[in-house]
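Note to self: keep these together.
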Amino acid sequence: MTNEFELKILGTGWGFTGTIDELCGRIKKEGYDGIEVLWPAEKKAQEELFAALEKYELELGLLCAGFDSDYQKHLEEFIAATNEAATQTIRRPLFINCHSGRDHFSYEQNKAFIDHTTRLSRVTGITICHETHRARILYSAPAARHYLHTIPELRITFDVSHWCNVSESLLEDQQETLDLALSRTDHIHARIGHPEGPQVSDPRAPEWEPAVKAHLDWWDKIVEAKRKAGKRLTILTEFGPPDYMPTLPYSRDPLSDQWAINVYMLQLLRERYIR
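Structure:
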């Protein structure tokens, strides 16, 4: 890293049904800087990922998670995944994004996940962020506010679409919490949510203009802060497949083209933020 602002925009493999080599080829062709993927548990999948990254000269962002509903098993799974992802020496990730904890775990239980990543980030120098995601530690703005106030080291992946959905609003009445979250953001998941769901059907459609504007205003503030600080910001274009993508009844045909929307978001972000 340098002391100059740097923006890296990554593509998602969410919903892609081909091989990792095919995915990376498409990501490169569209002009992304890299890819964000779930850290693979199997050695063969890791080797295939690293080979594709080298072949297409792409950067890497990693997602690590715990999934078990039992707290102890969840924590152990999460620690194992983050430790392996952060200490492997084949390809250093730009960041590690965390799907951590559960909304029904206690404060002290969830704090253990954050304490672990704080220590791991300090040792490895890798940026490790906890995502503002439904069902996780930071599932809502009010829940996140408590963690942000009590744990100064907490860094986040700002996926505000979830908060809009949980609070059934564009968060007009929670500006103080938003400002605190924006100041702790190192990574953005660029999906547009709305009061009744985590993903609009198509951000290009005029009926979603208020939601799009709200998200862009939040992202603008993050970018400006990183620009002033001379720090790197990473963004993932993360419009998802069904059932995040609305579908027609019976046929379940998606209302829009997920890949095309993510490429649209890539282009919008580049035009808006790269000078």
